[in-house]
Design a protein that fits this description.
The chain has 303 residues and is α/β, with parallel strands linked by helices. It contains twelve helices and eleven strands. 46% of the residues lie in helices and 20% in strands. The strands form three sheets. Strands 3, 4, 5, 6, 9, 10 and 11 form a seven-stranded mixed sheet that branches. The protein has a two-stranded antiparallel ribbon with strand order 1-2. The two termini are 46 Å apart.
């Protein structure tokens, strides 16, 4: 069997970002933490950490970190189930780390899981990332579940289709007018000469829109990067440029006081993004409850 103290030492080094902080968190000497890691690596016959200016896990180390986090959750579920016999145990909150894209988080995810969090005393630790990259957090063992565009589940996990999130290319009426020819058609040359508003450098929705409607590959155009949902939508309303907005947000945007109305750059040209919930096949009860809440919330809102 794996040594529990050695596993906790590995988790502490990765979670606290180094041997020194891990030693403080575990109330051990630096040498003791280092010895536990060396013993674990020796027992398994492979390196678990890449040591340098920053400490990071090897693939084997990532797998063990995920294992440690699952053990913690299962232990917390067990103690919670014994609450009637252990005074105070049932009152403990359990923390679950998940990776979610900002658009989902701001629209359907948080409202959808709120009741389950309160009922089962669950705490969320949210990692925000682009929907094409959230899967990396699960692969690294950082989260128990993620909203992702990837349909294929990795080994030991399940990928369940949540639904489709529809995006539309939006801008102010004045900006859209500048991108049209006299005949009323959208000029792709004028559009590419106009700045786009993009959430972050991982966001590829605007390129998908251009490829889908104008057959463009790796197009070049000026870009604003605004990595916050409300600020992103504010930038569009202030005429910074054109950008991809979730259809779920449009009704709220139109009702927002003090903001210019947004219109569709190319009517009827929606970009549909299929979203999947990835989670461990064998997950503790607390994570199962979250999974059920996420699936139910998505079913009510997504296409």
């Amino acid at each position: 069997m794996l040594d529990a103290k050695q596993l906790e030492a590995l988790a502490a080094v990765l979670e606290h970002g180094g041997f020194g902080p891990a030693a403080q968190a575990l109330n051990l000497t630096l040498a003791a933490v280092s010895l536990r890691l060396k013993s674990l690596e020796s027992a398994l016959g492979q390196r678990l950490l890449v040591r340098g200016k920053t400490v990071r896990a090897t693939p084997a180390g990532q797998a063990l970190l995920a294992h440690v986090k699952q053990l913690r959750l299962m232990e917390a579920d067990l103690v919670g189930g014994l609450g009637a016999k252990l005074p105070g145990a049932a009152s403990a909150w359990q923390s679950l780390c998940v990776a979610v894209n900002a658009d989902s988080l701001a629209s359907w995810f948080l409202p959808g899981v709120a009741a389950a969090l309160a009922r089962y005393r669950l705490l969320l630790d949210v990692v925000i990332d682009d929907q094409n990259h959230t899967h990396d957090s699960l692969k690294n063992g950082d989260v128990v579940g993620c909203v992702s565009t990837q349909a294929q589940a990795m080994r030991g996990c399940l990928a369940e289709l949540l639904g489709v999130m529809r995006y539309r290319c939006m801008a102010t009426a004045a900006l859209v007018q500048k991108c049209h020819t006299k005949s009323g058609a959208v000029s792709v040359h004028r559009l590419l000469a106009t700045p786009a508003v993009i959430f972050n450098r991982k966001d590829g929705l605007q390129d998908l829109f251009l490829a889908q409607n104008f057959q463009l590959t790796a197009p070049q155009y000026p870009r604003h990067f605004v990595p916050a949902v409300d600020a992103f939508e504010s930038a569009l309303a202030h005429g910074f440029g054109w950008g991809m907005v979730p259809e779920l947000h449009l009704a709220e945007l139109s009702a927002h006081p003090g903001r210019a109305a947004l219109v569709e750059v190319l009517p009827g040209s929606a970009v549909d993004v299929a979203l999947y919930w990835h989670h461990w096949e064998r997950e503790p009860a607390s994570a199962q409850r979250l999974t059920q809440a996420v699936k139910l919330a998505a079913r009510k809102v997504l296409l």
